C-alpha cells in the first residue's frame, strides 16, 4: 500500500502530500503536480492556493474505487511531485517554466495536475505536444475560454488559452462539456464552429447525457482532460474564480469521468480558489475528481 | 454596448451598478431597482442588503444570453435606477413609499426589482394595478405567503402579502411554483383552494415539470413574476430568511424562467439575505435570475 | 398545539428546545434526545455540538406535514428529553451511559435521536434489542461502517459500530442506502455480502429509486433508522466529519424517508458537525429529516 | 450549585439556558431575560438572534468570579426567564410589550437583559421608572444615541432612545463611556451638553481611565447599566450592527465594569448581531459582560 | 451636505460610492480613487476587490470628525472618481496606466487611493514626482518593502516598490512606522540604513509613541502617506495578503494619523484583501483610515 | 539556508512542512513535531487539525528574527519531524504513544510541539522527566488546568494534566501566566497555593509586566514552556476550544516570550482548533510563537 496506513496513522496526521502518497523518485507512472499560478484570472484570484488545499482535501481518499473497480495509487505507483515554481505577476515567464517542467513529466509519467487558473493549460498542452504529439482535448468548463485578447490586446489569460492552443495547432479534436452562462456576443457561438470545437452545453448534459458518453467513446488517440471546477454548480464548488450558476452536480461530473473509455495521457483540475471555499467542499471535490480520473486511467491501462 | 466594456475595464473595477450598466435617465425600457426593506420578516433579517449584494454579484453578467437568444441590456436599454428610500422599522410608511415610487416606474419601464423581503411585493402590486390594471401573478416560493395575520393581528409581513393582494383584488390568476415545507395546519391546503390560487408544489416541479410549463403558457394578459429565492434549495441559495430544505436546483429554476412565453410587465427577486451568504453564491444566482427574466422579456417583446 | 405558538411568539424567541416543544414529563409517545458524543470520529470532530445546533435549526418547523399528511408533534405528543450525559474522551464509558439511558426511553417512547457521531448507534441498538428484541435496520450513509478495528485494534469507532452490532446479533435485516466513495480494499464489497448486508449504493438511488422503495416496503417487524448526514452531498450538508462528494440531494433523501411504510421504533440522525456548517443549512436539514421520520411514524401508527 | 454540574454533564450538553441555569419560578433575585427585537436598527439587523446566541455562548461560565470575589449565580439565585414576545416590524407595539413585561420583572428581580437592538432600552427605562423611580444611567457605547428623529420624523430607533428617555425624564445623571466615531455634525457635541449628558469618549478611556472610575464611584442612588456591544472594538466584537473601529478592548470594558461600586438595579447588553459573529467571540464576550455585572451586583449587595 | 442624507435615505440604500459621495466632475479638491490591482503580491491575492469592499464598508461614515474637528467631505468637496483600469496579469502595463491616470489627478486634486496591493504605490509616486516634485513619504507597514528582486530578477512586486522609488529618486525623507516580523536576513537592517530610511518599528510605536509623533511633525514640504493595512494586527485587519501578528491596534494607527501636522498631498491604503475579511471589519477600518487622513488634510489646509 | 528559497519558489508553493523546512534526518538540534490529539477537550474539539494548520500558517516565516537577533532555523538546524501517531478516542493509549515517541526526541533534540489539546503535555513532561530529569515549567494559559477529575472520576483531560504532573512529581517550579476567567469555586485559588504553583494572572500581565519578566529570569535549570493559545484574547486567537475573553494581545505574549533568558529544553503550543479559525489568524500566530521560542532558544544557546 502506497498511502500512509490510515488504520495506524489517522488521516488527519502527518505532512500533507496528495492522498498521503510518497513524493516522487522517478519510477512512478503517474504523479500529482501542483501549478499554483493565478495571475491569469480576470475576476477572483486565489487559485494559487489550489494545490495546497487539494492536498489537504485529499486525506480521506482510500485505495480502492468501487465504481471504476480500480486501485489507482498502487496500479499507477502514484506519487506527489510537488509544485512548479511559478513567477507571480509574470504570466509569460511562468508559462515558460511550466512548459519546461512538464516536458520532463510527460516523458515518463502521466501528470495529474492541480491548478492554478486555466491559463496554465496552454503551456501544459505545449509540453504534451512536444513530447507526445497532438492529443485530443476533453474540456469540462462553463466557459468557452477561446476569446482572443483582453485588456488592450493581452493574449494570455484564463479566458484565451484554448484559442492560443488551437492557433498553435497543439490539439486534435476538442470537446467541451458543461458550457453555460451569458456570453460576450452571439458570435461566440459561431466562433465555436469556426474553431472546430465540439460543444456539449449544460442542456446537453442534463437532457442528452448518454449521447455525450457515446460520442466521447469514439475518440481515438491520446486524450488530455482539462477540467475547470466551475463546470460544477457553485453549490457544490463555491471556491472558484468566475462562478456560473445553474451547473452540473458533483455526481454528474463524476459519472461523466467514470464513463471515459479513452487513452488519457494527462489531466488537470483548475480554478479551485480556496479563499472562497467553506469546509473544504470544493477542495475535496477536486481531489476526488483527480482520483476518479486516476482510477479510469488505471482501469483503461489494464490489458 | 451599454455595460462598461469588460475587455477594457476588468469586471472587478468601477462603481457597482447592476451589471455595470448606466444609471437611468428616463428613456430606458427596463430598470433594475432595489427595495432594501426587511422589517417584514418573521425569522432572519438581512434582506435590506440584498440590492447591494446583487449589484456586486452581477458583475460577471455578459450581454448575450445564448439559451434565450437575447441581448437584454441592449434590447431593453436597461439601466440601474437606484433604491427606493425605505423607512426601517415602519412597514406601513415604507409600503406607501414603495407604491408611490413604483407607480412612476410602471408608467414607462419594466421594473426588475431586487428585495428586500417579500412584504415589498404588495405595494409593488398596488402600483402595478394602479398603472396597468390587474395582472396575473407567477409566484415562485417555498411558502404560500397567504397567511392572514401574525403577532396579535399584524396584517403586513412577508407571510401575508399575498392574502392582502387577493383581498384587495390586485391580481388575476395566481400560480405558485415550488411550494414545500411544513405548514401551520391542514387548512392551509384548503385555503389555497378557497383563495383560487393554483399551486404547483415541489413534487410537481420534480415530477411534472413539462405540465407546469404548458399550463403557464396559457396565461393571457400581463404577468408579474415574484420570485422568493427560498424556492431554491439552501445548498444553492443559503442566504435567505426562512430557508426550506429539499428545494429546486438553480438549473431547474432557470429553465422554468426561460420557458415563460408570456407578457411580463415586471418582476422581483426577494428574500436574498447577504449576511447568510458565502462567496456570493446566492447573490450571483439572484443576479442571474433577474438576467434570465430580462432576457425572456426581451425575447418575448420581439415582433 | 404543543409548540410555542409562532403567531404570538416569533420563532426566534424563547429557549431552544426541539421545534420549541415542551420538555418531557413521561407520558409522551416520542421524544427528541441528544447524544452529543464525538470521540468516535476518525477525521473531523464537532458532532458533540449536533444536538445544540439541531435544536436551534428546528425553530422553523411547523405542525403539519403536507407531503405525509401528518401532524407528528400532536399525534405523537412529542417532547424534548434533553441530552444523554456523555463522557468526553472515554468511548466505552459513554456507550454504557447511552445504553442505560436509552433502555429507559425505548420502554415508553419512540426516541428520535440527534448525534453525536455514528459510534452512538451501537449502544442505542443494544438498548433497543434489550427492550424490544431484534429490529431491522435501515442505514442511510455514504460509508459501510462495518470495518473491524482501527489504530491498533480499537473496536469502537464511528466506522466499526455496524460490525459490532452484527457480531452481537442485535439486528435483523440490514439495508444500506447511499453508499459511495473510495474504499480501503475490494474486500469491503465481499464483506458486505458475508455480513448479509443489503447495499443500495448511490447509483442504485440515482438510477433505481423505485426499486429501493419497493424493497424496503417488504420489511416486516420493527425497524430502526440510522441516518448519517453524510449520505447527503456536502453541498447540502457541509457540516459533517467525513464528507463524501457525489451524494444524494436533500429532496431525494426526504422522499425516501416519506416513502417508508414500515413500523419505525426509533431513529437517529448522526454526524452533524456544526463547526463546519454555514448559515445552519446542515442543522436545518437534520431537523427536517427528524421531522419527516416523525411524520411517517405518526402516519404509519394510525389505524 | 444552581448550574447544571459541569463535572457530570459536559458543558456542550443539555438545553441552552443562560449559563445552564434553571428557568425562573418567581423567587429569584436576578434573571436573565432576552428581548430579541431588532427593527430599530438603521444599518445591519440580526440582533433578534442575540438572546439565542448569548445563551449558547454562556455555557463556559463557571460559578466563581475571582476578580470580583463573587458567586453571582448562587448569591443572586439567578435564573433564565425566557424572552419577551416582541412584534417584528412594529416597534411601537413591541415597546408596549417590553414595558409591560419588564414592569413585572423590576418589582421582584434585577433583570439582566440581552438585546435586541438599543431601541429596547427606552421601554425598559420606562418600566424601571414606573417601578423604582428615576435611576442614574451608565451608558457604554460608541454612539451618542440621542439623535432626534430619522427617516421623515420617526421618533423610535436605536439612535434616538436616549433623547426620548431624557425628554420623558426617565433618568437622573447620564454617563456615556467609549464614545467615538464620526458624527452627523458638530452640533452633536453641544447637544450632549444641552442634554446634560456626561461624556467620556474613547480618548478618556484610553488616557484617563482612573478618572472615569473615580467619577462613577460618586454616583448615588440606583443605577441602570446599558451596554452597547459596539463600545468594544470590532476585532473583539465583530457581531454588531453599526461597528465603529478604534474601540475598547474586551479587557478594558471588563475592568471598567468590575470597578463599579454602585447600586445596580438592572442592565442590558444590546446590539449583538450573531449573523456577523465568527466562532461566537462576540456572543461569548456578551455573556461574560452580563456575568461581570451580575458578579458586581452580588458583591455590592453584600452587607 | 455632499453625502446622500442618511436621515432620509438609510445608509444601506443606493449605489455604493465612497461614503455615498457624488462622483467627480472636476472641481473637487480631493477624490477617492480605486486601483484594484493585485498581481504584485507574493502570497495571498484578493486586493483587487479592495476598492469595491472599501466603498461598501464606508457607508457608515458621517460628515463630522470630532477628534480632528473637521468636516472633510464638505471642506474638500470630496468625490468618488472610480477606479483605474488596470491590466490583470501584466504588472508593467498596469503601472503605466496608473502613472498616467494619477498624473491627471495630482494636478487638481488630492487623491485618496484604495488599493490594490502595494506595488501600485510606485507608479503613484512617479506621477506625484512628475506633477509636484519630490515629496516626503510616511510609510505605515509591517514590512520594509525595499527588497531588490523576486523570482529570478523580477523588479516589480509589492515587496520591491520602495527600493525602486528610492533608486529612481522619487521621494525625499522616508519614515517607516510599525515594522515587525521575521526578515530574510540581518542585512535587511543595514539596508534600511544604507537606503536612508528612518524606521520606527513596532516596539517604537508601543513604547515611544510620543517620540514618533514629534519626529514626524518636523517634516517639511509635501508628504505622501502610504498605509499598508498589515501594519495593523490581523485581529483588527484579517483581510490582508501577508499578515504579521503582533501589530498595531486600530486605535493606535488612528491616533498616529490624527497627530500628523504636515502637508499631505496624497495617500493610499493598500493590501486590503476582502476574500479574507469577516463582517467587513477590515474594509470598515480601511474606510475609516482614509476618512481620518481626509480629516487631517482638511484641518491642516485651514488658514 | 534551510528553508526552500522564497525568492525562487513562492511561499504558497510546495508541500507544507513547518516553515518549508526539510524533514528530519536525525542530526538536527530542534524539530517541529505535531501531536494531533483532541479527545481530551471538555468543550470544542478540532485541535487534532492544529499541526496541519500551523504548518500551512508558517509559510510566511523568514530566517532572521530581528527582535531576538537570531536565525533559529540555521542555528538550530531545525527540521519537521511529522506527527505522533495518536489513537483517536483512546486517551490513555495515546498518552503512551506520545511518551514513547517524545522519549526519543528529547535525547537528541529540542522538540517544538504543535498540539493537539493540552492533555498531550502530561506525556511530554513524562518523557522529558525520564530523559532529562525534572524541569521547571512556564505555563501560559487562561486556565489553571489543575482540576482533579471530570465526568465521574476521569483523570485525564485537558483540564487535569497539570495536577497529574504535580502528583507524579514531574516538574520543578511552575509559573502560570495569563490566568483569568470564571472558576469552579473559590477553592481553586487556594489549590494553586497548596500545589505550589506561582500564578501571574491577567492583571499581573497587564499591570506588572516587568515584574513577571524579572521573576522568570531567576529560574535556574532546564525550562519547559507550555503555551495554551487561549492565553491570548479570542480576538487574536479565535480558533481554540475553551476561549476566555479579556486576554493578552499577540504583541504582549510575543514580548513575554522574547524576554525569556532561561534554558529552554522544549515547548508546546496547544489548543489551536482550526475549524474555529478565520483567515488563518490563529494558525499564523501559533506558528509565530513557535518561531519566537525557537529564536530565543537559539539566542540563549550562544556562548
Average pLDDT value of chain A? 96
Query: How many DSSP-defined strands of chain A?
Result: 8
> Total number of helical segments of chain A?
10
Largest interface, C-beta closer than 8 angstroms, per-chain residues: A-B, 36 and 32 residues
- The parts of chain A where pLDDT drops under 50 for at least 5 residues are none
Radius of gyration of chain A: 18 Å
CATH architecture of chain A: 3-Layer(aba) Sandwich
> Which oligomeric state applies?
homohexamer
CATH superfamily descriptor of chain A: Ureohydrolase domain
Let me know the largest β-sheet of chain A: 8 strands, parallel
Give a brief outline of the structure.
The structure is a homohexamer of 303-residue chains. The first copy, chain A, is an alpha/beta fold and 303 residues long.
Amino acid at each position: 500500500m502506497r498511502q500512509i496506513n490510515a488504520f495506524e496513522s489517522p488521516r488527519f496526521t502527518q505532512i500533507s502530500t496528495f492522498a498521503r502518497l510518497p513524493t516522487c523518485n522517478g519510477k512512478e507512472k503517474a504523479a500529482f503536480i501542483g501549478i499554483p499560478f493565478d495571475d491569469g484570472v480576470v475576476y477572483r484570484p486565489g487559485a494559487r492556493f489550489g494545490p495546497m488545499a487539494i492536498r489537504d482535501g485529499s486525506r480521506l481518499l482510500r485505495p480502492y474505487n468501487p465504481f471504476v473497480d480500480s486501485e489507482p495509487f498502487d496500479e499507477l505507483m502514484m506519487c506527489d511531485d510537488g509544485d512548479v515554481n511559478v513567477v507571480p505577476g509574470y504570466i509569460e515567464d511562468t508559462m515558460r517554466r511550466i512548459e519546461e517542467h512538464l516536458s520532463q513529466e510527460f516523458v515518463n509519467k502521466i501528470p495529474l495536475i492541480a491548478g492554478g487558473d486555466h491559463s496554465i493549460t496552454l503551456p501544459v498542452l505545449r509540453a504534451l505536444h512536444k513530447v507526445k504529439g497532438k492529443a485530443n482535448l476533453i474540456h469540462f468548463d462553463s466557459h468557452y475560454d477561446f476569446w482572443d485578447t483582453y485588456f488592450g490586446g493581452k493574449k494570455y489569460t484564463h479566458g484565451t488559452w484554448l484559442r492560443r492552443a488551437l492557433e498553435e495547432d497543439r490539439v486534435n479534436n476538442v470537446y467541451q462539456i458543461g458550457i453555460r452562462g451569458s456570453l460576450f456576443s452571439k458570435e461566440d457561438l459561431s466562433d465555436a464552429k469556426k474553431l472546430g470545437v465540439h460543444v456539449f452545453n449544460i442542456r446537453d448534459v442534463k437532457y442528452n447525457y448518454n449521447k455525450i458518453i457515446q460520442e466521447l467513446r469514439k475518440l481515438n488517440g491520446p486524450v488530455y482532460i482539462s477540467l475547470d471546477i466551475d463546470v460544477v454548480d457553485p453549490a457544490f464548488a463555491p471556491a472558484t474564480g468566475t462562478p456560473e450558476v445553474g451547473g452540473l452536480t458533483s455526481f454528474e461530473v463524476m459519472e461523466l469521468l467514470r464513463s471515459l473509455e479513452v487513452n488519457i495521457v494527462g489531466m488537470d483540475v483548475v480554478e479551485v480558489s480556496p479563499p472562497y471555499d467553506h469546509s473544504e467542499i470544493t477542495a475535496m471535490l477536486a481531489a476526488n475528481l483527480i482520483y476518479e480520473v486516476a482510477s479510469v486511467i488505471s482501469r483503461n491501462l489494464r490489458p
